[in-house]
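pinging the channel bc i need a second pair of eyes. not urgent but kinda urgent?? the chain im working w is below, pasted from the shared doc
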Amino acid sequence: MKIAVLGAGFGAYHAELYAKMEEAEHIIVWGRNQEKLRQLKEKLPVRITTDLEEIWNDDSIELVDVCLPNHLHRETAVKALRAGKHVFIETPVAESLEDAEAILKTAREYNRRAFVDLFLRFEYPYEYLYRIVKDNELGTLRDLQVKRKTPPWWGNLDTDHIGLNLMIHDMDFVTRLLGEADGIFADHTDVREHQSIVTTCLKYKDCLALVQGASAMPQAYPFCVGFEAVFERGVIRYYEDGYSDGLTDTKLELFCDEKREEIPLQQTNCYDNALRHVLQCIKDGQPSCLDITEAIISLRAVLNMNRELAEQPSHNYFDTKRRLCKNGMDSNTAESD
């Protein structure tokens, strides 16, 4: 398969992964920065170009991998689809539902496929919890708390940007497990410029899911992800702390009345697994958990959260927790009346 990667930033990592796959027979990378492209060509067996028309006009290219700034996703994905190519788009799929639905409409019109890099679906702890929920091994999921916290390493993650650029992965995780929420309540704390803490409660018939994203942690703090899932018959807890010096502390545990068990973590690369899945789906024509329709559900959840945040003034952390708890309890009361 011949693949075009758009973008020499994070796209360089995608190109590196493709270069290790037998299915990816030819790789061409487009970018504007000629020095980055030159360095990439020295490192990997790829062609490079600064001419997008070369991509659109090459009928042998089957897949275009879009690793560009969010606001360019719609334009480039639609052009690729109209040129008869499948597309794989970095998260978020787009900045608006209108843009995402335009990509979906074009894919259907031209009988091509649009995939989105919902890579958390290939991260083992999240796969493990998904299986437990779907197989009902511990009964009904009653409470889910998910976190993603980071020092200021990733640019502007203020209240307006943290949802699409950091929390989208965890929101997708929740909506994949539980579907679209009956209600979303959100609050935020602006800690300093470009750094915020956002806490969101997604309400379901049998479960409350609390998602927290924070970009205001100190430099010495790890990039921290994890979840705690409370079921009728047990609890699953996972955390991973990744430090700037490369050290990682991680654990996945199952707690029941009769036992505590540490679940061995499989050492896999979720990005690599996502890309291999896409190539296999194109080859075999099989359904995909990375289909754009899945990404639209999580995008809608984040945009609903953003609308809720836009209506709220910034609070301190404890005010936020109290407000979310009050909204959750009021909603439960209203439902039972």
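so Residues 317-336 form the longest helix (20 residues). and The mean pLDDT is 93. — does that match what u expected or am i reading it wrong
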